[in-house]
Design brief:
By secondary structure, the protein is an alpha+beta fold. Helices cover 18% and strands 29% of the residues.
Length: 109
Amino acid sequence: MVGNSDHVVKTLFLDTHGEQLYTSILEKDLEGMAAKRKHSKYVSRRSHDWLKVINWKETEVYLTGYKKKDFGWLCAVKRGDRMVPVGVLEYGGSTEQRKAWLSTKPPLT
């Protein structure tokens, strides 16, 4: 077994009390946790044996633009009287919704 180093850190784990751990994650406003079947092996794809349990967050964002290649909406949040860019929404909306938005957007000059 590999020990801790500058590049590898052994993952902490619990055999029980997963629900209590998740409650604590929510209380501390952490990102989430990984849950796995105890004797499952790691695979480099999605698996029913390994789950990401996410502490989803919601906020109001403004769509301020878009990326043409690899479509995505540019998002910003309002801080005081300024709009601050926060990221790209790549998986929001269906293909039909994206096409509808592109057909109604004002032309870029």
